[in-house]
Amino acid sequence: MSLAAHRPIAMFDSGFGGLTVARAFIDLAPNEDLVYFGDTGRYPYGPRPQDEVHRYAHQITEWMVGAHDPKVVVVACNTATAVALDELQARFDVPVIGVVEPGLDAVLAVTDTDRVGVIGTVGTIASGAYQRAAAEVAPHVELTCAACPGFVEFVERGETDSEQVRVLAQRLLAPVADAKVDALLLGCTHYPFLARTIADVMGRDVVLVSSADETAFAVSSALATSGLEADGGRTGRHTFVSSGDIETFARLGRRLLGPELGTVIAHRWDAA
Fold first, then answer.
1. Identified catalytic residue from 22, 64, 76, 77
2. What is the spatial distance between Cα 17 and Cα 15, in angstroms, rounded to a whole number?
3. Tens digits of residue pLDDT in 196-247
4. What burial class does residue 144 get, using C-beta atoms within 10 Å of its C-beta: 0-12 exposed, 13-18 middle, 19+ buried?
5. Is 145 designated active site?
6. CATH number of 100-211, picked from 3.40.50.10860, 3.40.50.1860, 3.20.20.80, 3.40.50.2300
7. DSSP H or E stretch at residue 142
8. 148 classed as catalytic
9. Are 238 and 260 in contact (CB under 8 A)?
10. Domain topology for 3-98+213-266
11. Given 24, 76, 133, 188, which residue is catalytic?
């Protein structure tokens, strides 16, 4: 085993949504060290201009590479992946994995009717990342995309199953429901926390696919292929960092992720 195998996985998101990727990866590879950064001081990314999200993604990646020397960087945010992944992969020597491609591959694999839906933030859907990727790999598929403003904010407040969420979901999911999709990609890492409500609105005949789970599988596969897996006999260490209020991050993050989320380290940007 190379010394590089003992380096951590670095993962970041605008806030709590990426914890769905972290949860899936911890379950899949409990022997790996993980450093998670939640940019809660500047969330949500979805409504922000693309150049601003692009700058944040580069800033965070540069800091994580410099401070933690990771063997892989995971952009656990669909909006940041959509607008910055290509440039991040070109700029940094470390492998950078996003959430768009793994999720899209998975939802295309489960559709029987070739009518597929993708829901995401305003920024993700407006970027056209899913539309371009689907047109390239599966031009025969009828893809319906819908932006879901407000979903992220409900998750960040810890409100995932209220009547207000249900009413909002019924309105925002109407385009994909009307398109009679049989598979729906939750194209934001926050959305798995709303999966029960989304499933109730869409009905039992629609398969929900989480980009979080598929990204965790992609990271695990990349480690195995490159020979960078950590020793299987060890227990991984998990470090959590937030640019926002660390007490709020610890309280809500522990509820969403589980007991692995211990002490949260504060990180402040000089200028946002």
1. 77
2. 6
3. 999 999 999 999 999 888 899 999 999 999 999 998 888 999 999 999 999 9
4. middle
5. no
6. 3.40.50.1860
7. strand 142-147
8. no
9. yes
10. Rossmann fold (3.40.50)
11. 188
